[in-house]
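U., I forgot to send this yesterday:
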Amino acid sequence: MFFSDARTQREYNESHIITARRIEQSPTGEYLVPDSEELGCVRYCVVYDCRTSSLDCCDYEEEEKGKVAREDAEEGTAVQYARSLQQFTRHPVLVLKGGYKRFSACYPFLRTQKILWMPQELDNFQPYPVEILPAKLYMGNFDQACDQQIQKDLKIKAQVNISEQFAEGSKYLHVSVPDSLEANLFSSFATICHFIGELFLIWYSVQIPNTSLLSFCLQRAWDYVLKCKMNVRPHRAFVKQLSDWETQIYGTTITDISEPNY
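Result:
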């Protein structure tokens, strides 16, 4: 991921998103493009300014989901620079909806004054869980579930642990299942759904992801979670159990899991 900060030097120095680089301008006011070869290898190139008010036309789902929308509105500082970067990237350049002001209000723990990062520092940086529902539902792993700083930053109040590993927690549901194709989660779906509260973190073993799919019909949940984590791939046995759960809830099978997308 490549972050570009389109605010003033003073605003950037006060604080910015971790690893973000400030956009430089030439004496004539033209935007200077960073290493084009580096941009060509970046999957997500994100530009932000202070408020990015030019993206007010985004639909409700984009607004609820999480702050990133494609640049398709009237020109603003971030949008202008995104257009200039587009010719150097393989993928669409994204603009942060609401700009730095909104992002820093939602994720104050991801802002910094640090400008230079050593490779070892970047390698040691611990990622946060995937945000499924803003400030409500997260999907992470065992290490993240045990990280007290992450729990504090995200204000996590409850956890659902779906693995054979165990960790301490005040409000905690442990569904012990092996990391295998034979794992039976179907019998625990009702218990998990009942346990779900205001805010919780789901963490899982390597091959048993996506319990967050429980809240919707399978098709809708699949499409939604893919927007949050594009590389998520639950195994076929788990998808079959989700399909059976969908049938039990709705009285009929809605999603055709024979499609190759599943």
